[in-house]
Amino acid sequence: MIADRLQWSLPPKSPSLASDRVHVWRAYLDVPAARVESLQRTLAAEELRRAKRYRFQKDRDRFVVARGFLRAILSEYLRTEPSQLRFRYNAHGKPELLDGQGLRFNMSHSDGLALYAICRDREIGIDLERIRPELPGQEIAERFFSPREVVSLRALPEGMQADAFFACWTRKEAYLKARGQGIVLGLDQFDVSLSPGEPAALLRVIGHPEEAARWSLQELRPAAGYIAAVAVEGHGWELRCWRWMEAPAGPETHGGHAKTMPVQ
What we know:
The structure is a single chain. The chain has helices at 33-40, 45-52, 57-78, 137-144, 147-154, 158-179, and strands at 21-28, 87-89, 95-97, 103-110, 113-120, 124-130, 190-192, 202-205, 215-220, 226-233, 237-243, 260-263. The chain is α+β, with helices and mostly antiparallel strands. The chain has one domain: CATH 3.90.470.20. α1 packs across α3 (57-78) and α2 (45-52) runs antiparallel to α3 (57-78). Residues 247-264 have low confidence and may be disordered.
């Protein structure tokens, strides 16, 4: 099952997170200037320095909002002020909370949309991309994907290849982000599923036969024209999809609990 078939709902007032649950939050990053300024005040000095590296104001603002929303969302679980959260980063840049009470998280944003994946006592990674049919996916795949993935992509009708390319890309990125090791493991050193209708899965990691069984992957379709994947350590967890309260109004403006999707 793909998560766009679920309702991205407003969360309960005080979200809680059991060890067998995974929460994914969807947020839109283009907000009024006053809100950008408000969120900026919750960021640490290191985050503000990173924001200044962006050349264009729009990109700086989106970075500030993405980090501000991350703090706001995590603070809902930890019952603390967003500005009080402290992060540390591993050698490859993956963040984790100091005194996070076992919370694990990862985030990704693309063209004004962001996803935040949160769980407890499991490693997790998420990747989000806007589907761009004009991108030379076949050329990129031949350069970076595994031989098995390239063959699978070539076998598809041309009209399906863009979706399949981005499905593959997000699954691979989510897995690497969950491992927290950057691109030390080359994209061509492991296989993921990519064919339309095929469940998201890590199929093989060269030299590590036990690795594929260690991870679960799930495809997400958070909005029209976007595709994402979440990689979670272990099995037997359930996914709940929430939308952050500042998402623009649409057909899902009613509140309530998200539906639950078991992942085997």
